[in-house]
Known about the structure:
Layout: E1 6-15, E2 20-27, E3 33-40, E4 44-50, E5 55-63, E6 68-72, E7 75-77, H1 84-96, E8 99-109, E9 120-129, E10 142-147, H2 148-156, H3 163-177
Parallel strand pairs: 4-9
Antiparallel strand pairs: 1-2, 2-3, 4-7, 5-6, 5-10, 8-9
Helix pairs in contact: 2-3
Amino acid sequence: MDLTEKTLSSKSVFDGRILHITLDEVELPNGKKSKREVVNHPGGVAVAALDGDNNLLFVRQFRYPYKEIVLELPAGKLEKGSTPLENGKRELLEETGAEGYSYISLGQVYPSPGYTAEIIHLYACRVKSEGESKPDDGEFLNVEKISLNKAVEMVLNNMIPDSKTQIAVLKTAALLKSGKI
């Protein structure tokens, strides 16, 4: 059975600085019609940066939609004109002051495919040097180092709710164990 839905029409219902929301009418595989609300986002990137002692660099920042401080890997939205890897290097430097090397792709994540078209690109790297963070205007965060083993434990004990961070931590641990990082 072909599972593809055909877009019949698309109407912009919100056009913000980052998010663009459309209300689409689709034809379902069985020929019936339905509506789809889609949150369009430019995409993002996150970096699992390991230092020489296998500590990961994390940031804590207030995340308004959840009204709480969230522990995450350095991350940000994709900027036009730059590759996901270039964006990841920029975010790592801005948010933590660290420069990385030996970057490897950990793949892509679809955070919630039921309503958003966002794709997050994940990378792991080794830390070459550390300096002062230079966050964007209006961005406030604290940088922390947590051992990779402790971070895995935190993911498994539901102490890190951020999905991109969970995935990147677990993939980095698996790749380190297999000698690929």
